[in-house]
Amino acid sequence: MCSRPNSAVLPRVQTFAAYERDCTQEGTFGWMTGSPRQQLADLLGDSRTGGSFSTRRTAPPGDLMIDVRGLGTIRLPVTAARAKQLRLLARPARYGKGEETVLDRRVRDTWQVPRSRVTIDKRRWANTLVPMLDNMRDDLGLPATSSLKAELHSVLVYEPGQFFAAQFTHADARARGVSDRQLYEWRDAARVDTLSRGIFVRPGLDADYELLEIAIRAAEATLCLTSALARQGLTDEIPAVIDIALPRELRQPRTAAPVRWHRFDTTTFDIDRTELDIGAGRHIGLYGPRRCIIDAFRLRHIYGTEQAVGALRNWLAQRGSQPSDLLRLASSFPAAERPIREALEILL
Questions:
Q1: Cα 36 from chain centre
Q2: Backbone dihedral angles phi then psi of residue 168, each to the nearest 5 degrees
Q3: Distance of alpha carbon 234 from alpha carbon 255, whole angstroms
Q4: What three-state secondary structure class fits 108?
Q5: CA distance 247 to 263
Q6: Distance separating alpha carbons of residues 133 and 121, to the nearest angstrom
Q7: Which residues pair with 100 in a beta bridge?
Q8: pLDDT in tens, 117-134
Q9: Does the model's pTM come out above 0.85?
């Protein structure tokens, strides 16, 4: 259950196996010695059936009615405004790291509404969840003599990108306590897809996968030259590769996407730089129309004068284009200012 893109709210459920055995029988808890962890390991070791490392079930939002003291009924899906109200009642959420439960917002920027404030409609809860528990038990390969019990633990409010965003890296997963084994089981079970080496995405994600990979690997990546001209409607060319600019001092990453990297001067890198929404809550840099024209003229010895002049002509045909604004911007690029001025004198 998610709100609008800037937050997510989810009820957290703890499910555990409660072995229903007569304590007078052999093999019960009473005769076992050792730590609780060892006892649990011994019990689970008795299970000879195969099972999945994890399992899940889904249900319609209407099957769960949540009330939070101080706010009233929380209707699903949760709006961004409602999520902010919930956050005011919450406290920072801890997370498991090895043997410890720690608080580090650099790793987990999430809020927890205390269980004492939350009530649920038990009838709907029982009708929806209880029938699923036996199936979940079987999925996990637990003994048929065991039963699962589910209890509402708390309500969590996730900051943007915290509830495993639609895309995440191997390092993100490790930082949140997901083992390699669990991550690869998610992949094998088609719960996540591999975008490229070390990057995973939610199946069916509505995003530009190539640009998504580039944005993840290089935060400063910016569409430029032919790729940017095409995005801005200033050329009919369909680039075979993606033109990406980086500040000169940054190292270009390796990508599966077909990228032609360019090193631009750091002092002028951000001039007329905007952002393009590429889906999945991600953006990539994109140079505006005026900067695209300037770069085309600045690098015309590589990509040809015809492309530069054509882009300028198309831009002049657009409503609202102001040659004086273009020349003002071009003054920061001496190699482009004079040829742009000369082209304008011919075209106007």
A1: 37
A2: -155, 160
A3: 27
A4: coil
A5: 6
A6: 18
A7: 97
A8: 998 888 887 888 888 888
A9: no
